[in-house]
Amino acid sequence: MKKILIVLLLAFVIIQFFPIDKTNPPVNNGTDFLVVKNTPENVAKIIKTSCYDCHSNESKYPWYSSIQPSAWFLKDHIEEGRKHLNFSNFATYTVKQQSRKLEEAAEEIQGGDMPLSSYTMIHGDANMTAEQKVLVINYFKEMSNDIRILNNLPADQVKVKK
Ligand code: HEC
């Protein structure tokens, strides 16, 4: 028993020598979703608090980002999150992608899948109230529709397939 504990402790100490890279890619306000769309402040604030740590280049690194292995999970979430949807690069997506991703974002919130529950467990402030959810869901849907209609995209092309 004692041996196992010593091995675990050693392993924990050793992995501390493999920290994560906490530098964010540069932020270009000209392509940021909230900036480009001039999102109303009350809505923008919720999106920044609940989504931007994983879906933008403005990730904030909390205390547990200095401790392995929790930092590795965090880093993985940020990389995966950005890959799927990066609000900082929003304007670089095609209009079809933009419309689709916003529709997806609305559905992820509606389905309770986003923000990730492992994240809201620690970041209580990222939990949205029922009213905040409605506000953000409606905003994402409205923006998705605007982009679709403005660009004459057929509805079935941007619909999210289940
Ligand atoms: C803790 C990090 C984290 C936070 C916070 C977070 N996400 Fe995600 N998100 C992820 C990861 C990781 C993925 C990719 C894997 C997955 O789908 O679970 C993802 C995927 C997505 C996708 C793509 C789903 C798909 O099927 O491709 C959308 C849309 C999305 N998130 C929207 C949001 C929105 C909107 C918020 C804020 C309300 C949010 N996320 C908050 C980590 C996060």
Number of domains: 1
Question: Whole-number radius of gyration?
Answer: 19 Å
Silhouette: elongated
- What's the end-to-end separation, in Å? 49 Å
Q: Give the DSSP E fraction (strand runs of 2 or more residues).
A: under 5%
Q: What is the count of DSSP helices, taking H or I runs of 4+ residues?
A: 8
Q: What is the chain-wise order of helices and strands? A: HHHHHHHH
- β-strand number: 0
InterPro entries: Haem-bd
Domain Haem-binding: 9-144
Pfam family, one: Haem_bd
Protein name: Haem-binding domain-containing protein
Would you spell out the secondary-structure blueprint of this structure?
Elements: H1 2-15, H2 33-36, H3 41-51, H4 70-84, H5 95-110, H6 117-120, H7 130-150, H8 155-158
Helix pairs in contact: 5-7
The protein binds heme C.
Descriptive notes:
The structure is a single chain. The chain contains 8 helices and no strands. It starts with a helix and ends with a helix. Helix 5 (95-110) runs antiparallel to helix 7 (130-150). It has one domain (2-155). With 162 residues, the protein is an all-alpha fold. It binds heme C. The site of heme C has 20 residues, from helix 3, helix 4 and helix 5. This is Haem-binding domain-containing protein. InterPro entries: Haem-bd.
In short:
The protein has eight helices and no strands. 55% of the residues lie in helices and 0% in strands.
Note the main attributes of this structure.
55% helix; 162 residues; binds heme C; mainly alpha; elongated
